[in-house]
């Protein structure tokens, strides 16, 4: 998909603009001198709205939508990302850094739905999403395949409030505030194929692409369950492993622009192929809580296990044409989780973490 390629381009362009040949030292939660880069890979969980395309006729004769693809939080795929953060100096008493970052992930799933009635009955119903014309039969097996790309690219400023090195808190220490601009997208390619035994009855293909453009604010710092003996307190299990834990929370408003195109092919209609398209604009809220567990592995390198927990208030859900209604775009809220193992590298010859305290 063409839109997802902008993630790599935007990240590399930002890196070229912000990169400085300086020694890198790191505030415990933000870069305060020089430049830090990171790359990572992992897994994306994304539960998208159901696809309800085919009908089943109930015993009383009413039509009921079948669920052709389930909203399943276990739907997952690969994810990758990268970013760059560079110090910008003091602004009004804050240590300010600027960063660009991006990610790309892909989630695929498939589901098979069956409808069966007495021979010669009108148990199973298909309706053309373009003109609402219909066809009936006694048996139908529909396989649905969904291929979704979830991607994003952002630029942000981080306003640090603390010193370059900090002592681990007992519960939480706020270290910075964030303001950022973000572009992300969910691009879906969905395909349904209906068969009666060995006979292909219909195919339906759609693209459903949503681009989110907006801004966000947030805060972050280091957290610890220091009140739990032996775990994350000073001298506890995490300390002995050299681990530090951080949290980051953001909230933003976005314009959600959705474009939908569908192609329906039914081999027994007089005009077997029809096309339909729709578009929609909506206001979306996206909230994210990110947790990081970090381990220094060298003077200029560290490893982080980073997880983003996201709530997206508006993700498109197609309401396909029915006997008395046209095809339209609706929306649902969804949750997404992305976990990546990230390698952090400080550019320059000095330490990535300048003797940070514990």
Account of the protein in words:
- The structure is a single chain.
- The protein is mainly beta.
- Helices cover 5% and strands 64% of the residues.
- The protein is built from 2 helices and 16 strands.
- A 10-stranded antiparallel β-barrel has the order 3-6-7-10-11-12-13-14-15-16.
- Strand 13 and strand 14 form a beta hairpin.
- The chain is elongated and about 75 Å long.
- 37% of the residues are buried.
- The N terminus is likely disordered.
In short:
With 358 residues, this protein is mainly β. 5% of the residues lie in helices and 64% in strands.
SSE series: HEEEEEEEEEEEEHEEEE
Q: Given the C-alpha coordinates, what overall shape results?
A: elongated
Please bin the fraction of helical residues.
under 10%
Distance between the termini: 46 Å
Strand order of the largest sheet: 3-6-7-10-11-12-13-14-15-16
Number of helices: 2
**Share of residues in strands:** over 45%
Computed structural class:
mainly beta
Q: Averaging pLDDT over every residue, what do you get? A: 85
Sheet bearing the most strands, described?
Answer: 10 strands, antiparallel, barrel
Total beta-strand segments: 16
Rg over CA atoms:
25 Å
Detail the poorly predicted runs: 1-28
């Amino acid at each position: 998909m063409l839109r997802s390629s902008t993630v790599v381009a935007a990240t590399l362009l930002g890196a070229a603009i912000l990169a400085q040949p300086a020694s890198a030292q790191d505030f415990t939660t933000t870069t305060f001198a020089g430049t830090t880069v990171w790359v990572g890979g992992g897994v994306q969980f994304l539960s998208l709205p159901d696809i309800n395309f085919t009908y089943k006729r109930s015993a009383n004769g009413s039509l009921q939508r079948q669920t052709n693809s389930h909203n399943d939080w276990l739907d997952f795929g690969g994810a990758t990302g990268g970013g760059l953060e560079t110090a910008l100096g003091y602004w009004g008493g804050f240590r300010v850094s600027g960063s660009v970052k991006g990610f790309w992930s892909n989630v695929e799933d498939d589901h098979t739905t069956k409808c069966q009635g007495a021979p010669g009955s009108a148990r199973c119903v298909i309706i053309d999403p373009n003109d609402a014309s219909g066809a009936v039969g006694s048996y139908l097996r529909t396989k649905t395949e969904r291929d979704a790309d979830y991607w994003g690219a952002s630029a942000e400023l981080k306003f640090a409030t603390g010193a370059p090195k900090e002592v681990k808190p007992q519960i939480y220490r706020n270290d910075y505030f964030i303001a950022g601009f973000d572009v992300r997208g969910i691009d879906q390619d969905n395909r349904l194929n209906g068969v009666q035994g060995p006979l292909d009855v219909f195919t339906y293909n759609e693209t459903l692409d949503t681009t989110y453009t907006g801004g966000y604010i947030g805060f972050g710092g280091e957290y610890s369950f220091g009140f739990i003996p032996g775990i994350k307190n000073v001298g506890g299990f995490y300390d002995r492993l050299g681990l530090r834990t951080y949290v980051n929370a953001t909230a933003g408003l976005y314009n959600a622009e959705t474009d939908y195109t569908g192609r329906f092919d039914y081999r027994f209609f007089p005009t077997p192929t029809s096309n339909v398209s729709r578009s929609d604009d909506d206001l979306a809220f996206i909230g994210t809580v990110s947790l990081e567990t970090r381990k220094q592995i060298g003077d200029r390198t560290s490893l982080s296990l980073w997880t983003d927990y996201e709530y997206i208030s508006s993700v498109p859900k197609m309401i396909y044409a029915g006997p008395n209604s046209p095809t339209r775009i609706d929306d649902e809220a969804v949750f997404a989780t992305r976990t990546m193992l990230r390698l952090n590298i400080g550019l320059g010859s000095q330490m990535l973490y300048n003797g940070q305290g514990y």
